[in-house]
Amino acid sequence: MAKQQAAWGVDIGQCALKALRCTVGADGQVTALGFDYIEYPKPLSQPDARPEETVREALEQFLSRNKVRGDKVAISVSGQSGLARFFRPPATEPKLLPSIVKYEAKQQIPFQIDEVVWDWQQLGGYLDDGQLTDAEVGLLAMKREAVYRAMQPFLDAGVEVDIIQLSPIATYNMICHDVLGELPAPESVDPENPPPYTMVISIGTESTDVVISNGLRLWLRNIAIGGNHFTKQLAREMKLTHAKAEHLKLNSRQAEDPKAVFSAMRPVFADLSDELVRSLNYFRSIDRNATFSNTILLGNASKLPGLRQYLEQQLEQPISRFEKFENLAGAEVVGQKTFSEHLRAFAPCYGLCVQALDKSAMTTNLLPEEFVVEKIVRAKKPWVLGAVAMVMVGLAVQHAMGSWYSYATSDGYTDANNKTWGGVKSKATAVSSRSGQFKSEDDKLKTELGHVNALGGELISGTTSRTQLMRVLSAISQVIPKDPRSQDMQVDPETLPFVDREEIFIDGFTQDQVEDLAEWFGEEVKLQFEEDLRELELVLGLRKPGEEVEAAAASAEDPNAPQGKGWSIRLSGHHYVNSTARAEAGLPTGRAFIRESLLNNLLNQEVIVAGEAYLLEDLGIVKPTIMMASPPTPTMVPGAKPKEDEAADPNAILEDDELSEADQFRKMQDAMGAGMKSGMGKMGGSGSGQSAAAEVTDGVEAIRTTFILMAAWMPKTEEEVKARKLARLEREKQAAEAAAAAAEDGTTPAEGG
Questions:
Q1: Residue 119 parent element (H or E)
Q2: Separation CA 230–CA 24 (nearest Å)
Q3: Strand 72-77, strand 6-12: pairing
Q4: Nearest-angstrom CA–CA distance, 142 and 150
Q5: Bigger pLDDT: 572 or 180?
Q6: How many CB atoms lie within 10 A of CB 247?
Q7: Beta strands in 376-523 (DSSP E)
Q8: What does the alpha-carbon distance between residue 479 and residue 603 come to, in Å, rounded to a whole number?
């Protein structure tokens, strides 16, 4: 069974050394194993006291009757010796919080940053859309020389210190562990109605720590008034020695004239209560929604007769009697008389033990980094020495085995069959030489085969490229929106106005070679594509208004992600579907019409290529994006009458087996040019509103939207096209099965990219 880790919490105060030893029990509860309380002959603040010698003697006495080696040691320093600041950073990414804290440290610590030891910790806060929100940061600092001064007695005594903590922070850890109970999650807390706060007044010998917290927020203040101020005031007013005044203070109710004793100490009572009221009012001013459920008095000075009742009247809120630690087990320790008498003074020690046992809310540590590094190195030394010893043994064994194997593999070694390594090696060399000749001849034949294959590829590459381009032109021509009512150019614009013809006119088609399509599909093009896709999904009913969608899949997971060398296709065109009546009826106009007709067709309409149905993505045409759409602009459209010969159908040309590939490619270009100039199949209009094959007549007024649409084209062979189609159908099948299964379970399937 593993040995339980124990920890000592040591608090060197002005009047006594307090220490508590704890561990974590089998039930997970902090359990007290031992304690010590060593009172000094006189307080360290007395003029004739010798603090260094007194602390050294008390620490020697403590070590003489307690075992520390093997346990963690955590010590506290007065709140007056350090600096505690709390601030709320703006909502930011969690990875940026350390840089914000470092900047704040340089602003709020009134010393050079290399002259102090500092640490910080986040309190509360939660992630909202990847941003850390409503968090508070505690920043603790202490001058390096003060840290070394606090550690010096332990260094002289040979005690290794693991944690240095401010006394009010240790008290806060005790309160979180023993008083506040289980706290709600930060994201579930209403800022207008936060959990109630607990106020802790820890009265020491020379100062008083005020700790206000609800477990999610923390506020500290140190007041320079302590129990010794009551003694000094009593000695001054009643002309007593310090020892007699201290005795009279603790036994004021048994004095001959108790009223005179309280009257003498009244100024200190008033000063302390005024500072506490000021602290409470200030905190309420920075948190106007704060409410208080409990107020606790700690420290031996809190036992002063009448102090609790007086502070209750001044603070106007009840102060509970702190009689025991609720979550500290170990009856043989907590039940002892000495521990019970000084229970309130052991709160910082308890908080230090809680932190050393990894059960604290605040884990900051003001131990200088050089001591941390030294401890890590010292802890690893035995392992390093053991590893070195094992390496040396391994090297010795390896050398011995190497010597034996070296002899066993030498040419002169003879086995039981009277065969030597030299003879075997000569035969192996001859076989290896013959094998090398065969490999050389094989490599030569492979090189010649590669040249033949390259030559064949060059002979057929031109034909393949033209065939692929013709298929692309045919596919695009099939998805361009056409209004069947206006296919006959004899239709009068008065009978069928241009604004009512649900068709798109293509003015130009170009393709440019791109070395890296992933770079072409950069942030600007990607954002525009995703924006139009979201709008199109709303129209098609693929998602509900306000419903969040997942981010696009990474390029490595998206089968349609543009990548590698390819082409960018550019379609420029216009339409006149911009009537006011259509817009009032909720029908798409302007850019929306382009998106819901042409863009939708490019993404979802099947085309017939070589007698089979495909989507454009199967052909390698992906990510169609409306790069520009002008606002609807009034314009004049010249009237036109077509010639007797109609524009050829590019798809029909592609299917004409009687033409050679060269003639098909030439006629395809002519047909696409004529079709684009006439609206891709007798749709009328051109880039300037008239065709070279039309006669200009009187103009017709219309409202025109021009646009540019681009897409990526990754050329695919016929086998690759078929493979992409099969893969797409398989993905659609799996998505349908997942949706059906989710419907049976009553859940919503995760949205795909």
A1: strand 116-128
A2: 39
A3: parallel
A4: 11
A5: 572
A6: 14
A7: 505-514
A8: 10
Distances (CA, A) of 193 to 189, 190, 288: 7, 5, 10
Is residue 711 within 8 A of residue 625, CB to CB? The reply is yes
Token digits of residue 14: 């002005």
In CATH terms, the fold of domain 1-179+326-367 is Nucleotidyltransferase; domain 5 (3.30.420)
State pLDDT tens for residues 434-445. 888 888 888 888
Question: Which residue(s) pair with 219 in the sheet?
Answer: 212
**To which H or E segment does residue 166 belong?**
strand 163-166
Place of tokens 């290529």: 609
The radius of gyration of the chain from alpha carbons, rounded to an integer in Å, stands at 44
What six digits make up the tokens of 477? 């021509």
For residue 6, pLDDT beyond 90: yes
Percent of the chain predicted with pLDDT > 90:
33
**Residue 166: which of 330, 22, 351 has the closest Cα?**
351
Domains 1-179+326-367 and 193-321 share a fold: yes
**Cα 654 off chain centre by:** 54
What is the distance, to the nearest Å, from the Cα of residue 204 to the centroid of all Cα atoms in its chain?
Answer: 43
Phi, psi at residue 626, to the nearest 5°?
Answer: -80, 105
DSSP code at position 749: P
Which tokens go with 601?
């067709």
Percentage of the chain exceeding pLDDT 70 = 84
**Cα separation of 440 and 507, whole Å?**
60
The structure tokens listed for 304 are 């002063």
Is 692's pLDDT higher than 90?
no
pLDDT exceeds cutoff 60 at 676: no
CA pair distance 746, 744, nearest whole angstrom: 5
Write down the pLDDT at residue 278. Answer: 93
| Structure tokens given for 404 | 């034996």
**Average pLDDT value over all residues in the chain:** 82
- pLDDT score at 329: 92
pTM comes to 0.53
Question: Tokens at residue 150, please?
Answer: 């606090």
Give burial (CB, 10 Å; 0-12/13-18/19+) of 225. Answer: buried
Annotated domain spans of the chain:
1-179+326-367, 193-321, 465-716, 718-753
Distance CA 442, CA 279 (A): 92
- Could you give the residue ranges of the DSSP H alpha helices within 365-420? 369-408
Q: What is the CATH number of domain 193-321?
A: 3.30.420.40
Q: What is the mean pLDDT of residues 408-424?
A: 72
Name the H helices within 20-83: 51-64
Residue type, 408: A
Position 680 pLDDT exceeds 80 = no
Q: What is the per-residue pLDDT for 694? A: 40
- Angle between helix 258-286 and 242-250 (nearest 10): 80
Contact 19, 352 (CB under 8 A): no
Classified as helix, coil or strand, 290 is coil
CA 330 to mean position of chain CA atoms: 42
Tens digits of residue pLDDT in 459-490: 544 456 667 788 888 889 899 998 888 765 55
Q: What whole-number distance in Å separates Cα of residue 194 and Cα of residue 180?
A: 14
| Interval 372-383 mean pLDDT | 74
Which position has the higher pLDDT, 570 or 661?
A: 570
Residue 98 neighbours by CB under 8 Å, 6+ apart: none
Extract the tokens encoding 323: 């009689």
Place of tokens 């307080």: 43
Q: Is 681 left (phi over 0), alpha (psi -120 to 50) or beta?
A: left
Task: Please enumerate in sequence order all residues whose Cβ is within 8 A of that of 40, keeping only pairs 6 or more positions apart, or say none.
Answer: 15, 16, 17, 49, 54, 58
Q: pLDDT band at 408, cuts 50/70/90?
A: low
With 0-12 / 13-18 / 19 or more C-beta atoms within 10 angstroms meaning exposed / middle / buried, residue 18 is buried
